[in-house]
Amino acid sequence: MKIIILGTIAYSLYGFRADLIKALVKQQHTVYAFTSEYTQAELKKIEMLGAIPVTYRLSRGGLNPLSDIKITYHLSKVIKSMAPDIVFSYFSKPVIFGTLAAKMAKVPQVVGMLEGLGYCFTDQPEGLSKKVKVIKAIQVLLYKVVLPQIDTLIFLNADDPNDLLKKYNIRAKQVEVLGGIGLSLSHYEYQPVVNIQKPIKFLFIGRLLKEKGIHDFISAIKIVKKTYPEAYFTILGEIDVSNLGALQRSELDELIASKVVNYPGQVDNVKDWIASHHVFVLPSYREGVPRSTQEAMAIGRAVITTDVPGCRETVVDSVNGFLVEKWNPQALAEKMIYFIEHPEQIEKMGIESYKIAQEKFDADKVNKRLLNMLGL
Questions:
Q1: 159 CB neighbour count, 10 Å cutoff
Q2: Is the pLDDT confidence value at 236 over 80?
């Protein structure tokens, strides 16, 4: 078959869709990988997976209806010229405009995957701004038009279909819940925690944004440091200067200078950083199913995360870590202190994380389920 996988960022194709692409190529399917944000080096990486990279225009964050209509029309012409059997879109805008383009091109099977509901559907402590409410209303309207046309609509967690389809009365032909997109467990091998001694090391990985819980994490660190000043905290990830909820560079510099946190920035060898720490922490406001937590679990680390959609898919409370209330730095600090005071639980819970990752997040198992949802 001819199969189009339609995303945005090239990295997401070779970073997160690599195992799926390889599985499709192995089945002798021709795979076209559509990307709107790329470098020539990244297109080469997609080629090396056996897919044919195709570039197209799409503004991920833009809200220009005329531009989006033009792009959708152009995309439909490109898709029609390829005559694919399946178009599989993921992320919000590709699902919306990729589906419309595929329907215009009369593609036999259209599949969409929403890996999370995004910022507009994420509760904020101070509520949503007027601007976000307007964007959300537009998004819901577009979903009401588009989602009923999708043959199979895939979510990563069980909360998202309830919070989108049921809440806003949106019809869908067939809904599936995949779970996490999975990862190659041979790449993220279990690494036992050795020499558990103080300082206990805690690790956060993610963009340094409010909705990722970075401010709550820092507040919790300050609470922990009052009692256990030797506790060690590392933050990995980029500051998104364009985001209003981003951590300020000046605040980060102050934390680094006062040795409150260790900040290597964004790194390539994430698994080495996970292996060198004891406990993984992600106090996010909402996720699809967080990739970073899956990586930490596969390597065998205890996890502290929030009891919110997506995050709660990764932790069985008090088994492989703890679920804490969102927006609650005090609760987060208490669970970090628990691991400092009960270091014997770190390895025990880490082993449980590893077992859960083997069962739920093995890319081979996940891709078999995904291929089945694609009818392959």
A1: 17
A2: yes
